[in-house]
Every structure is written in C-alpha cells, then in structure tokens.
Amino acid sequence: MKPPLVLLGLLCLISCAVPGQEAWAQSPATELTIEAIFAEGGITGRTPETLEWSPDGKKISFVQRDASGEHGELWYVDAANGQKAVLVGETKLASLAPPATKIADERQKEWATRYAVAAYHWAPDSKHLLFDSHGQLWYYGLESGTGVQLTSSPDPSSDPKFSPDGRYVSYVRKHDVWTRALPDGGERQLTHSDSDDTLNGEVDWVYAEELDVRSNYFWSPESRQIVFLQMNEKPVPTYPITDWLPLHPRVEEQKYPKAGDPNPEVRLGVVNGNGGKVRWIDFGEEYKNLYIPRFGWVREGVLYFEVLNRLQNRIELYFADASNGHTRQVLSETSPTWIEVNDDFHVLKSGDRFLWKSWRDGHEQLYLYGFDQQNPLGGEAKQVAQLTRGEFEVFKVNHVDEAAGLVFFTANAEDAKQRQLYSVKLDGSDFRRITQEKGTHQTLFSDDGGQYIDRFTALMTPPRFALCRTAAGPEAADSCQGFWESRSLEQYSVVTPEFLEFKAADGKTRLYGELLLPRQSSGKVPLILNPYGGPGVQRVDDDWAGATALFDQVMAQGGFAVLCVDNRGMSARGREFAAALRSEFGKVELQDQLAALDQVLQRYPQLDSSRVGFWGWSYGGYMTLYAMTHSDRFKAGVAVAPVTDWKLYDSIYTERYMGVPGENEAGYKASSPTTGAANLKGHLLLVHGTSDDNVHFQNSVQMIQAFVKAGVAYDLQVYPNKTHSIAGAEARVHLFHRILAQFERELMLPTPATGTGASQP
After folding, report:
1. Residue 394 in contact with residue 431, Cβ under 8 Å?
2. Per-residue pLDDT for 284 more than 80?
3. In which element (H, E) is residue 456 found?
4. What mean pLDDT is reported for the chain?
5. How far is it, in rounded angstroms, from Cα 195 to Cα 230?
C-alpha cells in the first residue's frame, strides 16, 4: 500500500516560448482556496513529465503541458550549454503522446499516472523516439520530423522497449511479448499465452503495487534473447469492480490475492529475439508459489533472479545459464523482520562484481560482492567490502563510475528528514556529500555519469529542476544550472510549519513531527492530526507535499492547527523503528500518536484538547478508524479509502508485516476496526470510491455493516467509479470541501458535543 496521488494541483501553464516560472497577476496575500489547489493549472505549476537523458548524453528531454493538461510540447535542454528548445511541437505530440487525461477508463488512467507510464522512449542511436499513444506505438525520426505507426491492433500494446542494438522494438500485447524489426519490418509474437490467466512478460496488479515491478521482460545485452516472467493467475481469486452508472451496471473481475489467498504462480523463460521455443529456467516447482521480484542479465548468456519467500524474510540471489536453464544460488539473506526489495542490484562493467543493498545491520547500506567471472555459476559470491555504514538509510544507487571507482547514491546521512546525493569509493573510503542545499534531492544521471538532473524540493519549496555537473562539496552548488522552476507561493499568506521532536510511547524513541499553526487566532485553537502511520512511508520530511501541504494551509486559514507525526512503524529510520508494528497494526501507531498529542498540548497551551480531530487516506484512513474506535480523544474524523479488516487487503503487503492470517488470527482480529465498531467515539465521515482496485470498496461496506450491527451512527460519502486516488478536479474539490466542513462543523462549535456514543448525522 502506498499513499494516494494527491499532488494533482501541481500543474503548469505555458504562456511563453520557454517553459518555466511565470508572473502572477494576483495581489499580495491572495487567499488559498480548495478550488485553486485542484484547478487545472494549480497553484505552483504543472511539473515537467518524463524527464529522460538521450543515450548520447547530449540532451535532457521532458514533456511540458499547459494548464489544462490537454496541450503540450516535448522540450529538451542542451547539456553542453543549458539552452532549451522544442524537440517535438504541440500538433505532432498531440497524436504521438496524448495526455493521460484523454484516458476515459478511471482504472487505466490511474495505472498510467500512479506508475508513471512513460509517454516516449529514446532509441539507442539518440536520433529516434518511440511514442506510446495510449497503446499504439509510433517510431519518430528527429531529423525527418516524421512518425511511422508501428502497431495498429485494436488491442493495446504496453511496456515498449528498444533492443540494445536499436534494431527491434518489443512490447506486450494480450499477455504476450512481441517484437518488430525497425524501421518497417513485420511483427513477431515470441510467447503464446493459453488464456487470460497467463501473463507472459506482463506485470500483474499486486507485483506492480507492492513489489514496485514495472516490467517483466528484458533484452539481453547483445539483443539476442529476451528473458521474461510468466505469471499464472488462474489460482488467484477475483474481486468484482462494478460500474454503477450505466442503466445496466457493468462488472469487471480483478485478479487480487488477499492475505492468505493463492498468489500468481511464476516461472522464468528465455526466448530468442526472433522467436522460437521457450527455454524455462529450472529452479524447482516449489518456487512457483514464491516471489521473483527482480531478474535480468548478468551478461550475455547469464541471468540473475531474486527469490523471495512468502513470509518475505528470506531472499536468495541466483545466477542461471540461459542456454540450458541450470541455476546456482550465489547469495542468500534472512531478516529477523522482513526483506526490503530494491532495485540496487548492479553488476559492474568489470563483470566480476556487483552491488547489493541490505539492512542486515539495522539500516539500509551498500555492499560490494565478487564472483568468478569465467564461471559465474561455479560458487557463491563473496563480500568484498561494505561501502556505507552508519545510522542512516541508503535509498537508491544513482550511478556507478567504475573509471573513477565511485558509487553515487541518495541517503539521509546527516538528517533523517532530508535526501542528499553522496558518493563513496568502491573500497568504502572517501564518503562525500555532493548536493548541499537542505531539502530533498532526486537525481537522474547521464549514462557517462558526468552530469545529472537534480529535482529539488523543500518543506516550503515546490519543485525546481537543474542540470548539474558531477562535483562534490560546497562547489557542487556552482555546478548546477536551473532549467525549470515552480511558481512562487509569495502571493499567498502561507505559514511555515515547525519541525518538532517527541518521545514515543516507549519513552525513549525519538519521533519527528510537523506542526502548522494558524497565523492569527483568538482563544483556543482546534487541532487536527493527519498522519499516514503505516510502513514504507515517511511523511515528516523536508520535502514539498504538494496539494496536501496546500490543503493544510487552507485549514490553517480557517483557524485550525494541523499536526503530522511519523510514529514507529514508518520508514527511513531503520529496521527496529519500522518493525515496531510487526504482527499487529494500529496499536503501537496509535500509542505514539497519543503520546505526541499529549506532548504538543503541553508545549502549546493555545491548543484545545477538547477539540481534536483526526483524518487520513489509505493507511491514514485505517488509522482514523482505529483511533476513533480505540480512543475517546478525537471529536471528529474523516477516513478516506481505509482498510477496515486486513484479511481484505492484498497478500504481499499484508503478510509482509502481519504474517499469514491462519498463523496470526489474534493479530488480525485486534488490528481490525470492525471489531471495535461499537466503541466509536466522535463524529465520523467515511469516504470511498466504488472502483477502488487497491483498497476495495468492500472494506467500507464491511465497516458500515459493523456500525449497523452496533447501532452506531456515521456519515458516508461515496464517489462513483473513482479509484483509490479519487482523482479529478470535480471529485477532489467536492471531497476536500466535505473534509473541511466536517471539521468546521464539529470542532468550531463553542462547546463540546455531549453524549455517550457517536454524533448523530
């Protein structure tokens, strides 16, 4: 589970020849409104989409759309001089890469936006582009300025790729892998699915959502073969997603393994790029029911793949001979909690070493391993060095410069709330910080590593993009040249939140919090808690939170204080901090939230302890229900798209932290808000989209049934056909007005409501 995409207000209007920041006509101290936050064009501007380096490292390309999102151009920045120009104009781009807003189906639209499906891809020769026009592929020549349509099937093609030599394009269609020779060769079907339950090279929902898998097939380095994952979804149960709006409702069956359900059966196959018989990798029948979260090529003829057990506390790395399917385990690791799957397995160009990331010492750190280059399957890999160490997290390997003997990576070494770029030598020496400005840096390196794109944000700084030369230390700031910046917030009377520290309920663990106080207030101030609470997410950080941050400002304008605290169980603080919620959701999280609440009320006497609200989305929605059924501290709450019984959520996420239901019945029961429905305190607004394919609408239905049985009143807001994000300006404006009205009605009353149960609707 991940937080929903609530950053839809960060849009941009192109009104001049070059994209960037534009002047505003509003007068100073313009009032923030919900309508302005979620309007097309937004408050701070539409950020560039699909930033990519050309393979030759000479250009940075990106799609820039106007305020409506309907019109856009493909721009590039010349890496040599920083100058910007249009690569593909609006008229051509409209047909080659129409915006996601043109996708009618809400679930398909959410897939494209949630998983950042790229609108275009660079060819290896840096002279051609491949565009994905909502399932139809176009091959575009930059010199000729013309496009050739590669596919015209009524069935959409997805996950397109160039072969490394640029001679072929591959894609997935109707659950199979296809290739087409360029520029005008015929297409060839490489795999043959026997039913809609068999996915060859295609990613299913649960792998995409919970293992961050974005592709399930890969070309070999010399473009001779393709390795792919086959997923058999036949044993996976289905969930009905109903479109209630037509005269005769339509039902779509979603394959969705819930906690304890059968997962997709998986196996790896290798096929020649020009077709032929599939060769299956031999790693035993028992592995069909485990996870293969990552796989690819060590070199031509040699594969790697990772195997994760169902409890996700053991991972094994295998090498395989692509010619005969033989395998060898070269590394294994067991965790006392669970394994964090990542993308940082990286084979060095030397061909005899690889990078491996692990939190075996309690924090995510980088390790260097060696293996026999001549005989990769001849023995286990050996640890050569631990490259990083300390009480911080390494989030991503950004680039490896073997010539210089350097690894570049993102970490929070000096401040848990920041993300900075660092480098370290391949022997573990010379640990250096590259980026200097306090905040959050996300970087994208050119293939040669000489330059990178830096996307920078901070708590009150919306995104800005710069082209930077690789340098370390204080001189790094002078090596960057900005090429896009969000609109300023200066015209609004915004208030900067204050970072705070608290003690957790255990009396020793440090918690980070963020408090936003209204600029002006008379008398006591009502307080609203807005945590996420769950694993895998950090909310309190020095980063721009987009529409979430702007809505908090609207709340502050209305006289509310807003508190966000990262309780134990959340991420970026090490294994022990994350594992505090293992086997029972809700308990530790709420204890920490209440401990922080007591401390903030003591420090800020202007806050009114009798008028405290709680709201959240997804896991935050679950936290709202859990808090209001396990505490009497909250007078009102809003739970958006909440899990209400963890047996209803997907297998990979839930079992990672809770185990299999049959082995932890007590934990599942204690974690479910439905079991405490009769204890609801305060006035609850329950919100859900009927087409939510992540946290199913079934969750709210079962919560409603529990309230009905308990004779407890609540309010309900349903959004027809909306998915987990409840996306779209109309729906967002409606929803956030409802949230604001809920707290205005319940927390702005002159005196506390009385009664023994929940407020009546």
Report:
1. no
2. no
3. strand 451-458
4. 92
5. 12
Structural domain containing residue 330? 169-341
What sign does the CA torsion over 306, 307, 313, 314 have?
A: negative
Render pLDDT for 638-655 as a digit per residue (tens, 0 to 9).
999 999 999 999 999 999
Q: How far apart are CA 191 and CA 662, in angstroms?
A: 38
Q: CA angle at residue 558 from 553 to 560, to 5 degrees?
A: 75
Per-residue confidence (pLDDT) for residue 19, from 0 to 100 = 38
The tens digit of pLDDT for each residue in 241-268 reads 999 999 999 999 999 999 999 999 999 9
pLDDT in tens, 366-413: 999 999 999 999 999 999 999 999 999 999 999 999 999 999 999 999
Is residue 196 domain-resident? yes
Residue (of 282, 309, 313) closest to 293 by Cα position: 309
Count of domains forming the chain: 2
- The DSSP result for 405-423, as a single string, is TEEEEEE-SS-TT-BEEEE
pLDDT value at residue 101 = 76
User: Domain of 720: which CATH number?
Assistant: 3.40.50.1820
3-state secondary structure of 350: coil
Contact residues for 646 (Cβ-Cβ < 8 A; gap 6+): 259, 585, 654, 658, 668, 671, 672
List active site positions: 618, 692, 724
Residue 605 inside a domain? The answer is yes
**What pLDDT is attached to residue 651?**
98
Q: Is 331 helix (H, G, I), strand (E, B) or coil?
A: strand
66 domain residue, yes or no:
no
Pairing of strands 176-181, 432-433: unpaired
Q: Which of 456, 396, 403 is nearest to 422 (CA)?
A: 396
C-beta neighbour count of 578 within 10 angstroms: 21
Domain boundary among 286, 318, 341: 341
- Given 341, 361, 382, which residue is the final one in a domain? 341
**Domain of residue 241, CATH code:** 2.140.10.30
Of 308-317, 379-388, 520-529, the poorest mean pLDDT is in 520-529
pLDDT digits (tens, 9 = 90+) for 578-633: 999 999 999 999 999 999 999 999 999 999 999 999 999 999 999 999 999 999 99
Residue 373 lies in a domain: no
Give me the percent of the chain exceeding a pLDDT of 70.
94
Residues β-bridged to residue 188: 179
Q: Tally the residues of the chain.
A: 761
